[in-house]
Write a structure and sequence with these properties.
Elements: E1 11-15, E2 22-27, E3 44-46, H1 48-52, E4 63-66, E5 69-72, H2 82-102, H3 109-123
Antiparallel strand pairs: 1-2, 1-3, 4-5
């Protein structure tokens, strides 16, 4: 049994201090070892009622810590780097190029400009753009 001086409260939630997502739930008084448990001061105390609420409170995902309180929380989406977006768009371009070739057609001027912009973003020659250009409406002639 854990010495209660280390963990004066029985129930705790640990969380990532960067994105505030709850990363673990601990019943410290029932643990045989707290070797891998954060210190009590680095966690948020959970009441017995909260601990026992496994349908809407103590869940494996969807909780965060804001102002030392546990709240419903969805972390912000991780932004996808522009280069990665351009590489993904280039995969679509390659599919269109295959189709154009199979149909005996070529890319329109707008499509060629789109491809040139994607290439510049991917290669790093364009380091000022913050978003991809819109896909052209007319692709092949």
């Amino acid at each position: 049994m854990i010495e209660r001086k280390e963990y004066p409260d029985r129930y705790y939630a640990s969380y990532d201090k960067t994105n505030y997502v709850v990363t673990g739930w601990y019943d410290t008084w029932e643990m045989s070892s707290v070797t891998n448990v954060p210190s009590a001061g680095d966690m948020v105390v959970v009441t017995p009622a909260q601990w026992n609420d496994t349908t809407s409170f103590r869940l494996p995902t969807g909780k965060g810590v804001i102002g030392s309180k546990i709240v419903d929380y969805t972390p912000p989406a991780t932004p996808i780097p522009l280069t990665t977006q351009a590489e993904t768009a280039m995969t679509w371009v390659q599919d269109q190029a295959t189709m154009a070739s199979a149909m005996g057609e070529t890319f329109t001027a707008d499509m060629k400009a789109y491809v040139a912009t994607l290439r510049a973003i991917i290669s790093g020659d364009d380091s000022t753009s913050t978003e991809l250009p819109e896909r052209p409406n007319d692709i092949m002639v």
